[in-house]
C-alpha cells in the first residue's frame, strides 16, 4: 500500500506505520528518523537540520524534498510505502504530487489521525525512543523490560531532544500552523480518510476497511 500518515506529533503515526509494514511489506519512511540518523552521524544534512529540529521547528522544504526525491526511488519502495511525518507543509505536498506524477505512481489514500491535544501532550512527555533502531516506548504504558534498554536491539532508550515541554509545545504550534492545512489539501484531492481514534488498532481497522472498499 502507498499511504501518507498525517497527524500531530504523538498522534501515533510511527506506531501505526510499524504495524502496517507487517501487513504487506510496505516500508515505513520517516523523515524524522532519517534526519535524526543524519544528526547522530554528523553528516552535512545532519548539521543543516540539527538546530531547527532541536527547537521543534521544521527543516527547510528544499532539504526535505532532496531527501524524499532520492528515498522514493529506492528498491524497497516497490512493495509500497507509508510516509510518516512527510509531507508537513503545503509546498512539500505540492512537490510530492509532481514527484509521484513523474514516477507514474499514485497514493492509495491519506490517513489523518486525529487525537485530542491533552492525549498528545501526555504521550509526548512520557514517550521514550531507542536511539539505535527508533522503537518507541512509553514510561507509563509500555516501558522497555529493562530500564533504558531497547527490547528489540539493546540500544539506549532515551527521551528525544525535542521532547522537552518547550519544544513539544512549539512542535504542536508548528503543526497547527503549517501541517494541519494539509487535511484540507488532501480532502480537495479526494484522498482524505480522517480517523478519530486514540488506539492504533482502531486506526488500522479503519485503514483496512478503506483499502477494501
Ligand atoms: P518527527 O520525528 O516526524 O516528529 O520529526 C522530528 C523533527 O524533524 C521535526 O520536528 C522537524 O524538525 C524535522 N522534520 C521531520 N520531517 C520533516 C518534514 N517533512 N519537514 C520539515 N521538517 C521535518
Provide a descriptive summary of the structure in words.
With 213 residues, this protein is of the alpha/beta class. It contains nine helices and eight strands. The strands form two sheets. Strands 2-3-1-4-8 form a five-stranded parallel beta sheet, with helices on both faces. A three-stranded antiparallel beta sheet has the order 6-5-7. A hairpin with a 5-residue loop joins strand 5 and strand 6 (136-138). The model has no long low-confidence stretch (mean pLDDT 94). The protein binds adenosine monophosphate. Adenosine monophosphate is lined by residues 9, 30-32, 35, 52-53, 56-59, 64, 85-88, 92, 162, 171.
Keywords:
Rossmann fold, single chain, 213 residues, binds adenosine monophosphate, alpha/beta, three-stranded antiparallel sheet, five-stranded parallel sheet
Lateral arrangement of strands in the main beta sheet: 2-3-1-4-8
Kindly report the name of the CATH homologous superfamily.
P-loop containing nucleotide triphosphate hydrolases
Helix and strand sequence: EHEHHHEHEHEEEHHEH
Task: Provide the residue-averaged pLDDT.
Answer: 94
Specify the biggest β-sheet: 5 strands, parallel
| Shape category | globular
Instruction: Note the total helix count.
Output: 9
Would you state the CATH class?
Answer: Alpha Beta
| Fraction of residues in helix | 40-55%
Q: Give the tally of structural domains.
A: 1
Would you tell me which CATH topology applies?
A: Rossmann fold
Instruction: Quickly give the CATH architecture.
Output: 3-Layer(aba) Sandwich
What percent of residues are in strands? 15-25%
